[in-house]
Every structure is written in C-alpha cells, then in structure tokens.
Amino acid sequence: MNNYNFDKLEDRTNTMSAKWDQREAIFGTQNLIPMWVADSDWQTAPAVKNELISRAEEGIFGYSFATAEITNSIQEWLKKRFDLTVASDWLQYDTGVVPAINFTLKAITEAGDGVIIQPPVYRPFFESVKNNDCLLVENTLVEEDGYYQMDFAGLEEIIANWQEKPGSLKAFILCSPHNPVGRVWKRDELIRLIKILQREKIYLLTDEIHADLIYRGYQHYPILKLLAEEKNLKDYQNQVVAFMAASKTFNIAGLHTSYTIIADPKLRHKYQAAKAGFATGNSPFGLLALQAAYQNGEEWLEAQLDYLTANYQFCRDFIKQEIPGLKLSRAEGTYLAWLDFRQLSFESDQELSKFIAKEAGLGMNQGNWFGRAGSMFMRLNLACPRQRIKTALKQLKKALSELN
Ligand SMILES: Cc1ncc(COP(=O)(O)O)c(C=O)c1O
C-alpha cells in the first residue's frame, strides 16, 4: 500500500509550465487540454520535494558540484534497477541529454561525417546532427500493424552504399526506449545492432532517458550492460556514450540535470574538451533532486509504473472499443502514446493538427515533428490523471464522429 495520489488533478496554470502556460503561443488557444511536452502532471516523489524544500531553506544558491554521494546514488540506482556497474569516473554531469548529445557529436565528428538516426524520433536528434555540420542519415523504423522495429536490412544497405570518405559514417544515435513509438528494445535487437556498429567502427550514442519508464512485463537493457556481459562486445565500450537522467522518471526535467556515461578515458577526455566553454556546472537543486530520487524514490516510482501501465491500457482499450479508424501503436514503455490517423480522412498534417487543437480541444505533438515518417500521426502524453485521459479521448471521439 502507498499514499501516492496520481489521480489528483493538479492546477499547473501560472507555474511557468511550458505544457500549460504556453498553450496560446503553441496552439493558438488557451482552451485545450495540453498533452504534449514530455513531463508529468503530478507532483514528484515526496522524498524529492522535501529535499528541495530543505535546500531552499538554506538560502544560498551558489555554484555547486556533484559530490561523491551523488555519484554513489547513481551507481547504486543503476546496479539495483538494471544490474549495471559503472565506475565513478565514467560519470559526467550535464544540464540535459540534448546538450550532451551535441557535445558528443562535437567530440567525435568532423564536418561532413554521417550520423544515423531512426525516425520517427525525438526531433533534437535531427537538429544536433545538423548543428555539427554532419550528414543526417535516416534509417526509418519499420512499422507493421502498429508495432515498430529497427530496419536492419536498411542499415546494412546504408553501410554498403556509403559513398563518402571511408570511415566517415561516424555515429548512430539510438533512442532506447524509443520516443515517440514507445518501443523498449529487446536484448537480441540491441545485440544485433551493436554487432553491426562494432563491425563498422561506428560510434553509438545511446539516449536512455526513458530507461526507468517501462510498462509492466517489459525490461530495459542498457547498452553498457550488454557490452559488459558479452565477451566479444566489451572492447566496443570505447565507442559508446550513454545518456541518462532522473528527469522524466521523477518529473524534475525543469531542474536541467542529466548524466553522461563514458567508459573509455580517451573518449571521456575528448568529451570534456568539447564541453569546455559551453557548460558551466549544474544547479544544486537538480543535483540534489537526482540524489534524493535515487536514494529514496523507488517506492514512488513503482507506484507510478503501475499507474502509467494502467493509463496506457486504458487508452488502448478506449481507442479500440470507441474510436473506429484510429490506431494506437503498441508501446512497451515511456508514457507516450503514438496515434495513427492515416486511416481517417485528413488531407494534411496541418489539417489534422488544427482539428486536434480546435475541434477536439487537445494539445498534442504533431507527428511530423519527429520526421517525415511521423506524418499523419500525433503524440499524446499519458503522464496525467486517468480522468483527464478519459475526458480527452471522449473529446477526440466526439470530434471525429462529427467529422463524418
Ligand atoms: C528521447 C529524449 N531525449 C532527450 C530528451 C530531453 O532531454 P533533456 O531535457 O535532458 O535535454 C527527451 C525529452 O522529451 C527525450 O524524449
């Protein structure tokens, strides 16, 4: 039994919430239920909140650094949740996964190098490749009956047909679990991917920010864990950078703290050199929230995972039973629902988005924000009270029924 209340309809208006207070700016109307940006509509774990309150009481908020205790809390969390062992000097602290991906590309690429991504995928992946003057190489996921898989044949083809300078197909950015389609990659899928990248000496940037958000019945495999387990893969550690955070898991994304794991000392030095002049330490609130979450937030997380799993199941069943023509992609984790409108009668992404905001009264992410493969899809954030999901889906059902 626990006392966590994920059903409570919190009022997030006038809190500088990007999701709630930018509705007018983003959707042209304040009058919709915002279910877009990936944060949660409930309070963080009590342990995190209490730690921040007591730190605020101290009244001095100068420059801070990650103490050995914070590093230790990460090591223990990764061991306990994933059986992953990381040495303390592998850990770098960052203000977010997105800047960390940019620093990594800056460290390992030259202008004109190729970087592979798997759309539909989190848009900053596209942008970080472009920021670093690299060539964006799209290996689109394959979708069948609402279930997404990696296109291994397509990847082999990209490699075989690479016409640029030898060795310049430089990096692959993996989203694991995958935003927006909600796949939690299986062990054998990841091993297969690693083997191809290792063979080609392609760096692997693995964004595991959603690693803790796994629906019941599935399991997340950190890339570094797989490398440690398989004798022939261990050496590939020198080409892997992993990005993780407590930010999605504990709804503390606004505190801008993440950590980057680099096992290889040479790669770590390159990474640190790439950061120099761009990054100036972390917020004491972000670091303390991370520590409190990992030290004292596990019970809250387990309760949240039960709730999120039930939210996804509710959404899945409602759509199946009540909204003909709309398809929900089969998700195994994250709290994002990927809705397929291709069988409905919309003519363009703009028309679909406008309909969702103005007619259904819902603020979702337009699918093609995640690349062309997301055209005619919308992303719905399920990290909110079930009651709100129910209201939203009813509004969607009604609006769609009035279309015909
Ligand atoms: C896959 C993925 N990576 C990174 C981020 C953002 O990370 P950060 O806020 O740490 O830059 C998100 C946020 O939605 C995400 O879904």
TrEMBL record:
Its EC number is 4.4.1.13. Transmembrane segments: none annotated. GO terms for molecular function: cysteine-S-conjugate beta-lyase activity; pyridoxal phosphate binding. The keyword Lyase applies. It is an enzyme of class 4 (lyase). Coiled coil: none annotated. Residues 47-395 form the Aminotransferase class I/classII large domain. Gene3D superfamilies: Aspartate Aminotransferase, domain 1 (3.90.1150.10), Type I PLP-dependent aspartate aminotransferase-like (Major domain) (3.40.640.10). NCBIfam families: C_S_lyase_PatB. Belongs to the class-II pyridoxal-phosphate-dependent aminotransferase family. MalY/PatB cystathionine beta-lyase subfamily. This is cysteine-S-conjugate beta-lyase. It comes from Halanaerobium salsuginis.
